[in-house]
Design brief:
heterodimer; A: mainly alpha; 13 helices; 0% strand; B: 325 residues; two-stranded antiparallel sheet; globular
């Protein structure tokens, strides 16, 4: 081993982030997935500028098959360029997936932290509320919300977030229950740290690893969820999203199966990449679990 | 005695949950823009304020919130879920008509997923590096990442449009004539694709869990004893190990009621299966609020009852769970 390598490995041992990154790199599937995911994100941001065809405009005869007439993925039932629709759809799918996951993580962490920290009647009430949200059939409840209060992007985000936070709440609570009994928490409490800071400054940072892994997976399921809603037509009609392309072309699968196949592949690859990255994060952040 | 006490507590909480669902349902109806009077006046092509007030008084919509809520809950206790102006039928009747189709789809999909899932799980637990094990890993990734409605459409393209093995939509062919068995075969043929699609969500879950528990069980002492007394590998796996490996899988299956409902909405819509899911989709498109909320209540009721029954069954079967409150 050269001097440089040795120095490098010493540094690695010192920084927990470098150690986690190293663990992540050992999961090859996760690394490949991360590259894919970055490509998808770049496509969502810059794609519409690189491939400026309007996804709403009729550019060619309907149902022209992929590869002909210069349209790589063909055209849909209204003669719109499928490739342009998929590129533009990436933005909405990723944006809603990400922000719905954030909504559910914020709700879940707050509920779980309060329940696990205060115990007693607070925990009892909050866990009953969690149970209540668990018995509501998720898709049906968000369909109802979107149908009653309008299919705007913020409403869809809220409707997905409000039904998906229960898993985060349970994980956060059980982590808080474990950590609140540890000595460094008792020590901080004895030195007069306020409850707020105990919860979010002392306990939460140590409870983060499983929450981060769960949140990553949540982005994937939120994307699937949004795809389901927009497939059913519950989406903002002024934007393109992957599920909506499938939903609106579904009657024409006999003539043009590819209009449904390609957007589906986009959803599949994105969610797959996110779940593999989540796997890698799990390896990186919970090294003890990995040895089982 | 302990069993009875725990059960009673659970039933009490289930009733509280149900009331909470009702309050939520009613508040949603209250908060949503437009009420019954608006719906009726729309279908009549407009009405003046006097008539609107008259309708509101007739339906008790001018009463205070709590009075209306009390009436609503009282109605639900008599299984009166309101009236659908879109279908011109009571909501409860609409729901009851659609139950058999959904029940058939959901139960057969769950049985298929459990059977194939456990089979795959057991096979891959016996050979952890074999091809079945890799297939289970692949299946788990696919099951998690592929949108179920997309899987359904791909199967539809493949097996009823390209190779015309199965019918495209619906539950039965109304033009077919014949006895019971002719209809039985007809419904079964319609059922195959929706059943496979819906089970694909759960197949991954069950096969992965049964692989994990089976591997754990196969490493335990009593399995070694069973092997040592000279039983064949098959006898050990299917007579001794499987029983204990099944319990967590059944528990997981019992917790899937909510996911089953969500899956059924999408799968039924893809295959035009005439069940509750399609009804939910159609009433959403038609903005038929009473029907939507009726379905939401009914599904929550099914989920609550399902969880309660799973819990009781587990505590009956597994003595270790009995005392847990």
């Amino acid at each position: 081993m050269s001097d440089l390598d040795q120095q490098h490995s010493i540094e690695k041992a010192q920084s927990p982030f470098a150690e986690a990154w190293d663990m992540f790199l050992r999961n090859h599937a996760a690394v490949v997935a991360l590259v894919f995911l970055l490509l998808i994100v770049l496509t969502a941001i810059f794609g519409p500028y690189i491939y400026p065809t309007d996804p709403f405009e009729m550019v060619w005869a309907p149902f022209s098959p992929p590869g002909q007439e210069g349209f790589l993925l063909g055209t849909d039932y209204l003669g719109r360029d499928l490739l342009a629709m998929i590129i533009n759809g990436a933005k909405v799918s990723l944006l809603i997936g990400l922000s719905a996951a954030i909504v559910s993580v914020v709700i879940g962490v707050t509920v779980g932290a309060l329940a696990g920290f205060y115990r007693g009647w607070v925990e009892e009430v909050l866990m009953r509320i969690t149970e209540f949200f668990q018995v509501l059939p998720t898709l049906l409840f968000s369909m109802v919300l979107v149908a009653l209060f309008g299919a705007s992007l913020p409403m869809i985000t809220f409707a997905i977030g409000i039904v998906s936070w229960t898993a985060v709440a349970r994980i956060t609570r059980s982590e808080f229950l474990r950590i609140r009994e540890l000595e460094y928490v008792t020590a901080s409490r004895a030195s007069g740290v306020s409850n707020m800071r105990l919860m979010f400054g002392v306990i939460l940072p140590n409870a983060l690893p499983p929450i981060i892994v769960q949140s990553a997976l949540m982005v994937g399921s939120a994307i699937l969820f949004e795809a389901g809603l927009s497939f059913l037509g519950l989406t903002d009609p002024n934007v393109v999203s992957w599920g909506q392309i499938i939903g609106s072309n579904r009657q024409y699968i006999l003539d043009a199966g590819y209009t449904v196949t390609f957007p589906g592949i986009a959803i599949f690859v994105t969610v797959l990449a996110i779940s593999l990255v989540g796997d890698g994060l799990n390896d990186a952040l919970n090294p003890k679990l990995r040895q089982r | 005695m302990k069993f009875l006490q725990t059960t009673l507590t659970r039933v009490f909480y289930a009733i509280l949950l149900l009331i909470a669902v009702l309050v939520l349902n009613f508040s949603l109806m209250h908060l949503a823009p437009g009420d019954v009077a608006d719906t009726i006046s729309q279908s009549m092509g407009g009405a003046d304020q006097e008539l609107l007030d008259q309708i509101r008084a007739d339906y008790g919509l001018d009463q205070p919130f709590l009075v209306q809520l009390g009436r609503y809950i009282g109605g639900v206790l008599h299984f009166d879920l309101g009236f659908s102006f879109f279908y011109n039928q009571p909501v409860s009747q609409l729901i009851i008509e659609r139950i058999p189709a959904t029940l058939l789809l959901v139960v057969s999909a769950q049985l298929l997923a459990l059977f194939v899932g456990v089979l795959l799980g057991v096979m891959s637990a016996r050979k952890p590096n074999g091809i079945t094990s890799h297939f289970v890993t692949f299946l788990a990734l696919f099951g998690y990442s592929a949108p179920v409605f997309w899987t359904g459409i791909l199967l539809l393209i493949g097996f009823s449009l390209k190779i015309q093995w199965f019918p495209v939509a619906g539950m039965q062919d109304v033009t077919i004539e014949g006895g019971f068995w002719v209809h039985f075969v007809d419904v079964a043929r319609h059922l195959v694709l929706p059943m496979i699609t819906l089970s694909s969500i759960f197949l991954a879950l069950y096969s992965r869990l049964s692989r994990a528990t089976m591997m754990e069980v196969l490493g335990s002492d009593y399995v070694r004893t069973a092997k040592a007394k000279g039983l064949t590998s098959n006898q050990v796996v299917y007579k001794h190990a499987l029983k204990n490996a099944l319990s967590p899988v059944i528990t997981l299956a019992g917790l899937q009621f909510s996911a089953v409902v969500s899956g059924a909405v999408l799968v039924e819509t893809v295959f035009s299966w005439p069940g509750l899911g399609t009804l939910a989709f159609q009433s959403i498109i038609a903005r038929d609020t009473p029907t939507i909320l009726g379905i939401l209540f009914f599904s929550a009721l099914v989920v609550i009852l399902g969880n309660l029954l799973t819990d009781m069954a587990l505590r009956l079967v597994d003595p270790r769970m009995r005392g847990r409150g």
